[in-house]
Amino acid sequence: RHSREGRCMTDDVGTAAAGSAEGFTWESILRQACKTRLHGSQAKHLIVLGDHSSGKTSLVHKLQQDQESTTIHAGLAMDYSYIDVSDETDDDAPTGQLIHVWTLGDRSHAHLLKFALKPKRLPNSMVMIVLDFSAPWKLMQSLKHWLSVLEEYIEGLHLPAEQMQELQKQCRLRYQGYRESQEQTADASNAAGTTPEPAPTPGVGESPARRNNLTAGTAATTPAVEENDVLVPLPEGVLARNLGVPIVVVCNKVEIQDLNKQFGLSDGMVDYIQQSLRRVCLQYGGGLVFCSAWKESNVEVLFDYVAHHLLGRPLLHRFQLASRDILFVPCGWDSPDRVNIDFESQRVCRDPDVPFENVVQPPPSVAVTLAQEAQPTAPVTAAEDDQEFLRKLKAKIDATPLSPPTSVRRAEVDEEQKKQNLLQFYRMLASGGPRLGYGQ
């Protein structure tokens, strides 16, 4: 589904009704509705960042839940699509809502962010950083790279101080406005000894049609902050790097059983990875989601979280730490104290100062390949500009003295040779050269 389909539909309807005045009225209405949905002042934008082969395109396709198309087309440089969050159960909103999705190709196209994340769009935008969990030793490096790219881009916008302060304030309110629901309180009671009714596992076995009724059920959080609410100060280190836009870090291709068989990835190592990622997410106020687009696990939770932040809809899913494959840590639930408690309970590495790459290392078979790729290659010779090359060539020609043509030089040589032969003949006559006798 692309935006041009909406324009084609409008043109067809207008052409069919061109014979009557009523047709022109319907055409203008449809055009205005299409324009409002796609280009309204409150349009929502999802910026998807991630390395090549991290599964960004497949993940966006699963979020769209386009049942009519089974082919996934990967774009070049920057790709555009949209998510139609139409509410079929609400007759008062037949046009639904759209989330514009901008997917950046890879690191070499980071400069194209200026076309997707424009200053006027920042209040209505969300950034999704997709990481490839099938190569866990690259997770931290990739995450820090894209966060630095995003931070450098936003700083380069040179936003007015008032606008930046307002954006940062909204990010703080999102974290401080998180409220645990009654169901989450029941989970705490369960830990104390009671046995409340078990809750369904998020992201597993859910129907795609559920997103058409996101307002049903009990919200897991209360995103709006009331005037009488007492906001708890931010813990130390939380939102230390407040960029003014909501961020969600998505680890895609989380198939832990397959990774355990292939690379020997243990549960303890997975715990260390998620705790390390949570530390970074807290600095930027970002959420963390583990999912698999291929297995369609936890994709519904991710969609719910995106719709919650961009469209203001209730968050229907609770945090999830027990199941490693479908981990979900929303912004506002986590804290440095919770991370430290979990960090001290695992046995892989309890020193937070140890670099992530020193703990999560590639297996020997992969390490050899990475070492070969890291070897320095021959320097690339950049082609010189054509005009500069011709300019240097002309200067070299002008500095070289002109020489006569080959035919002229050959004639000069022949003339000199004749002179030498004639001079030699006269010398021979003057010296009484050899004479022939009569008897000879």
Describe this structure as you would to a colleague:
There is one protein chain. With about 450 residues, the chain is an alpha/beta fold. It is about 45% helix and about 10% strand. It is built from 15 helices and 7 strands. It has helices at about 5-15, 20-40, 55-65, 115, 140-155, 160-175, 180-190, 255-265, 265-285, 300-310, 335-345, 355-360, 365-375, 385-400, 405-430; strands at about 45-50, 80-85, 100-105, 125-130, 245-250, 285-290, 330. A 7-stranded mixed beta sheet has the order 2-3-1-4-5-6-7, sandwiched between helices. α1 packs antiparallel against α2 (about 20-40). It is elongated, with a radius of gyration of 36 Å. The chain starts with a helix and ends in a 10-residue tail after the last helix. The relative contact order is 0.10. The model is unreliable at about 1-20 and about 185-225 (pLDDT under 50).
Record the SSE blueprint.
Blueprint: H1 3-16, H2 21-39, E1 44-50, H3 56-64, E2 78-84, E3 98-104, H4 113-116, E4 125-132, H5 139-156, H6 161-176, H7 182-192, E5 247-252, H8 256-263, H9 267-284, E6 287-290, H10 299-311, E7 328-329, H11 336-345, H12 356-359, H13 364-374, H14 386-399, H15 406-430
Parallel strand pairs: 1-3, 1-4, 4-5, 5-6
Antiparallel strand pairs: 2-3, 6-7
Helix pairs in contact: 1-2, 9-11
